[in-house]
Each structure stands twice: as structure tokens, then as C-alpha cells.
Amino acid sequence: MSTFTMVTPKLTPGQISRMDEDRSVSVIAVGTLFIVLCTVAIGLRFYARYNRRLGIELDDWSALAALLFVILYCVSCVIALPFGMGKHVWAVDPTRIWRILQIGLFNALIYFTTHFFIKLSILAFYKRIFTLRILWFRWCLIAIAIYNGGWFISSFFAALFQCYPPQYFWEQQNPALAPPPAGTCGAHNAPLVISTSALNTFGDILIFALPLAMLSKIQLNRANKLSLLGVFATGAFAIIAGIIRLTSTLSAVGLGADVTWITADIYMWTAVEGGVGLICACMPTIGPLLGLAGKKISGHVMEHTTRSQAHKVHGTPRSDAGSWNAKSMVRKSTVLSSSGSYSASSDENLELKMQSPRSIIRTDEFSVGRSSRKDDTSFETDVIIGTAITSPV
């Protein structure tokens, strides 16, 4: 009967003083934050599609699938904490290291799947909003889609079968197994993780750089250009998070590295990279919804200010025979034309006063959206607020 003997190296005074350090709280906080943010982003995305009477497209379903894997990744990171992930390697029970390896392989597969669906969502969105009559753009879109699919398939199966059978990846570190498991590992984990991460970041750069040339040909007002700038800034942050994750991975594979401690960095930046990437994929869809909400709030503030000024000038309206009470009505209309469809809604507030001089104070607020196709993703939404005082009736 074979026995397993664990030799524990002598700890230095510095290592002893850091035995109780733990990054579990940070891992839980980051995971929880991005579960909430991504869930809200997807919820707003689907609400925006419903609110604008648009169908659910491939980019929406891909974003929803990415959300499920973002949640799964964050939850699996928390599951790894009781086994020593986030603590210094010298403070971790060596007999439980295999559990961290098991969850680590599972997380790698989730990572590849998450980013595949995020990229698919963005590429499907590009296909829907940009014209494919421009030959170079169409071929670039196809090439990047093929690159994304090839990266996903090769990375997924290379990680899954880096050891054969796959469970040998973690079972070889489990001292409780007797006899020791049989298996082989054809690829070292470190180069595999580094190469797949670098290729993923390169794919992100390609995707976010592709539409830049197209944007110069699109006529947008300053507000919409700033909105798009915010989208690309968010995408740039996702790329930066991927680069930081890659540098953390390089630190983890160094000789004598504090692997379980550095792995917490890798897990957190992976959650940031996936979460920010998913939010960025949702911003073009939910942007008009947030902009409309802000304009409505601004319109109500202006309406309240106008009414207050009217009361100061003409006095408070009375309900006697010499005055009319304030009346309000809401009108909504839709106009169709050969160039597209136009939808308009107005909140019309009328204050009628029979005082001397008799006048009508009228405040109209219009929200106008223009669409040239049924699956409108235009950023063009205008709000017109007008106030007029007519001559005595």
C-alpha cells in the first residue's frame, strides 16, 4: 500500500506575519458588483427593444447567453475561496490545492465561452446597423467572425484536453487518491493560458477598431458622438482589463510565485474584463433609452419652471365663473412616410384663464424618434419643448 508524504518547507518570518492575509472579500465584492451591473444592463437592453416595439435579434440573445456565463464565472470564483484561493500559497492546505486546479480549469472554459458570446453579440450588432454594401467592411466583419470562432474552438478544446483524461489535470495533485491516477499532460498550462489570453485581447482590439472608419461617414450630432465615444471608452477599458489580466498571469507562472494569492488577481480582472465587455455590448441599445429618460426629466423641470413663472405673472387660477381651471391632455401620434416611420408623443398642458387680459399659456413637449427600418437602432431622438402665450381669446 502506497503512502503520501507531504514535506512542508520552513516558513520565513515574513511569511508567518502574512499567514492571515485573505482576498476573499475583494473577490466576492467584484463578482457581486458585475453580476448586478450586467444583469441590469441586459434587463435594460431587452426593455429597450420591447419599448421600441422591436424584435429580439441574434445580438440580444448572444448578450443574454454571455450574461449567464458571467454569472457562472463569478459564482465559481466564490466557490474556490474556501479551498485557499485568495490566500498565500504557504497558508493553504496542500491537500486541497487540487480543488483550486479543478475549479480553475472549469473557469477557463467559462472564460472562453463568455468572450465568444460577447464578441458574437457585438459583431451581430455591427451587421445589423452598418450597411454591408461597403465591400471591405463586409469582408473584415466576416474575417473577424471567423477569427473569433476559431479562437473559441481552439482555446476551449486545447484547455480541456491539455491533460488526458481531462480530470488528470487536477487528480495528479490529489494526495488522497490511491493508487495515483494515470494520465499524461501534453501541454503546459502557463503557455496555454498566456497565448489564449493574448489572442483574445487581440480579437477585442480588432472588433472595437473595425467601426471607427465607418463612423467618420455617419452624420451625428455632438450628443450622439459623445455617446458613441462613451461606448468605445468602455470597450477600451475592457481591453485594458484584459491586458492587466495577462500581466497577472505572467506573474503567476514565475518561479516560486505565490500562485493562490495571484490567482485572486486573475479571477477579479477576468470578471472585470467580461463584465465591462458585456456592458459595452449593451450600451448602443440602452443608450437611447437612458437619453430619453434624461430628456423627459429635463422637460418636466422646464415645464414646472414655466408654470411657476406663469402663476407669478397671471396669479393663481380660480375655480369661479371668471376663470377656467387648468386642463391637461396627452396626445400621441404616428406618421408614416416613404422614407421611414416617425413616431411622436406630446404632453400638452393648457392653462386657460378668463382674467383680464384673457390669454392661453400653452406648453408642449414633443419626443420625436426617426426610423428608416423596423429594427431601428438609431441614436437620433430629439425633444422639442415649446412655450407660447397667445393673444386674448
From TrEMBL:
Its main location: membrane. Keywords: Membrane, Transmembrane, Transmembrane helix. GO terms for cellular component: membrane. The chain crosses the membrane at residues 27-48, 60-85, 97-118, 139-161, 192-214, 226-246, 266-292. It is a multi-pass membrane protein. Signal peptide: none annotated. InterPro entries: Rhodopsin_dom_fungi, SAT4-like. Residues 44-290 form the Rhodopsin domain. Residues 304-324 are annotated as: Disordered. It is found in: Membrane. Belongs to the SAT4 family. This is Rhodopsin domain-containing protein. It comes from Geosmithia morbida.
